[in-house]
Structure to design on (587 residues):
């Protein structure tokens, strides 16, 4: 199970859950921890969450599939969420999305062949003043232009290469 | 420069967060000190008398909400801060938390005392990781300084605050869905009644307030209700409001402005006017669920009641402006796609109705629309309004209704020409 979540985190969640009146409270936290470690949440991640917290896997699955930022299918090393809500749309989000699709060679909902990037649409990121905006991982970038996107992707590719 | 009194943004500097020492230097935690010298009822009455109304969109009087809370009921009770802020066009809470998060912490400590709850949750959306970290740091600082924790400031009162990081979905901003989310249940909304004040988090009495609402509370305690009332330009209103500007303006920033300021002043003086010297066509005055305002509304006061009089709402005061070249059918389609995608699917009017409206707007925008489609659009609105389980679909009808009321000619133009006249 260690490729899903390091043992020390498992132990820490278990200890917290035991001390809590409502261990369900931690379901989203455990799912997010697994995702942050394993990149996405496979079936075994749902089972592990249920075991760690002493809740039923069905309850965990009901939650995991509700939230759009929990990934129940494999994603690339970096997930790009591009905003398509009204403020970004009014300032060219369609062009920005088009540029991302063209540059990455994938459509929304797909992952690049090298496994580096997954491109997903998202609703408003709360960066309306900086529209158009997108999120890579947990970092939001605004005032996007094709040039800025190219530079950001370059930076991420370099960071991924350094990790490998 | 902004000539109006700055309360929530008085310490705001680009790229910085105010830490505890500076927060204290600028009057921080004086409100909590003042509150702890009063009885909980007195705090409640002061907030009630200040005229503070909820800043999360509904505009419900905060003190009145607090007065419904069974503060003297024994057992667990909870205070929850709604920081889900996911309505397109709304980014004010993020700006507030990035700049000066102790205001929320202090506001929650005061609210917890007024409501006699000892546990508070701050619910923050997935995209606000930076806010979450800054709020956690503020909580740690406040706890170390004795403003939170056991026996705060030497009194017999305890209060602890927890940050909950969510994982996406707009429906979590609906307060009962948010409570399910906090509990670790599938976050569909719950039926009301019972209201959260009776049966909320873990079936216990719970009070839910927005970030900006709670951040106003310390200032009311420090400076009094008359001071707070006089901040507004509208004599019937009270306080400042954070206005997040977006869309086709020259300056898309978040400003703290008095309630009752005219839309014209917001758009022209603070937004720097419409980009490219174009004309103002319409705006969402307070987020994606608020019915459009047009150029004829520019001299209206941006405030709760004046906007309701013209069938719109102040909402969250996230003002999204559209220039004269914007197709309002396309805007409404975009907004409706958002609501349709974020529908939790619990009730039929929302799950099926919003999808149908998306399809109808698609047909019209793509030039395949007919008079029948227009009639169906009216029919869908009638069938959805007042029939959905929670406020999501109701809110989604705001812009659709406004499209039909204010821009019916534009819809008919699409139908007549067989294409979008703006492309």
């Amino acid at each position: 199970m260690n490729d899903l979540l390091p043992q020390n985190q498992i132990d820490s969640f278990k200890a917290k859950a035991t001390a809590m009146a409502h261990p369900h409270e931690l379901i989203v936290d455990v799912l997010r921890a697994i995702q942050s470690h394993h990149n996405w949440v496979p079936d075994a991640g749902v089972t592990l969450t249920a075991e760690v917290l002493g809740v039923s896997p069905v309850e965990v699955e009901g939650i995991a599939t509700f939230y759009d930022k929990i990934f129940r299918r494999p994603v690339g090393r970096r997930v790009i969420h591009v905003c398509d809500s009204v403020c970004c749309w009014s300032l060219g989000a369609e062009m920005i999305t088009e540029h991302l699709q063209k540059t990455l060679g994938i459509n929304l909902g797909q992952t690049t062949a090298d496994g580096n990037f997954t491109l997903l649409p998202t609703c408003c990121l709360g960066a309306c003043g900086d529209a158009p905006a997108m999120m890579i991982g947990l970092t939001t970038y605004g005032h996007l232009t094709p040039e800025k996107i190219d530079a950001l992707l370059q930076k991420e590719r370099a960071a991924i290469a350094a990790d490998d | 420069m902004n000539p109006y009194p700055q309360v929530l943004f008085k310490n705001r500097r680009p790229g910085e967060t105010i830490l505890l020492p500076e927060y204290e230097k600028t009057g921080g935690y004086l409100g909590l000190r003042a509150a702890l010298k009063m009885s909980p009822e007195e705090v409640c009455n002061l907030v009630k008398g200040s005229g503070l109304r909820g800043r999360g969109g509904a505009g419900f009087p905060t003190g009145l909400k607090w007065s419904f809370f069974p503060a003297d009921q024994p057992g667990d009770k909870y205070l929850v801060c709604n920081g889900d802020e996911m309505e397109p066009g709304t980014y004010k809470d993020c700006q507030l938390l990035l700049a000066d998060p102790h205001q929320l912490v202090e506001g929650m400590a005061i609210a917890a005392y007024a409501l006699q709850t000892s546990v508070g949750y701050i619910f923050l959306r997935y995209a606000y990781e930076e806010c979450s970290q800054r709020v956690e740091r503020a909580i740690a600082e406040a706890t170390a300084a004795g403003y939170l924790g056991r026996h705060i400031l030497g009194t017999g009162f305890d209060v602890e605050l927890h940050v909950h990081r969510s994982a996406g979905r707009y429906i979590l901003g609906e307060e009962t869905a948010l409570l399910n989310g906090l509990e670790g249940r599938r976050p569909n909304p719950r039926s009301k009644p019972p209201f959260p004040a009776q049966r909320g988090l873990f079936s216990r009495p719970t009070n839910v307030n927005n970030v900006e609402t709670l951040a106003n509370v310390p200032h009311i305690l420090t400076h009094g209700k008359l001071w707070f009332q006089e901040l507004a330009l509208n004599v019937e209103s009270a306080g400042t409001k954070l206005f997040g500007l977006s869309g086709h303006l020259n300056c898309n920033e978040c400003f703290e402005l008095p309630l009752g300021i005219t839309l014209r002043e917001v758009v022209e003086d603070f937004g720097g006017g419409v980009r490219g010297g174009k004309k103002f066509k319409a705006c969402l005055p307070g987020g994606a669920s608020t019915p459009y305002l047009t150029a004829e509304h520019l001299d209206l006061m941006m405030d709760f009641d004046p906007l309701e009089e013209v069938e719109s709402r102040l909402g969250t005061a996230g003002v999204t402006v559209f220039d004269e070249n914007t197709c309002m059918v396309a805007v409404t389609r975009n907004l409706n796609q958002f609501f349709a995608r974020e529908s939790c699917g619990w009730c039929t009017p929302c799950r099926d109705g919003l999808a149908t409206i998306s399809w109808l707007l698609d047909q019209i925008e793509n030039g395949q629309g007919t008079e029948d489609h227009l009639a169906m659009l009216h029919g869908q609105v009638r069938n959805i309004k007042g029939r959905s389980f929670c406020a999501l679909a109701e809110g989604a009808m705001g812009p659709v209704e406004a499209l039909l009321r204010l821009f019916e000619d534009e819809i008919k133009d699409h139908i007549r020409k067989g294409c979008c006249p703006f492309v």
Summary: Chain A has two domains: 7-66, 78-163.
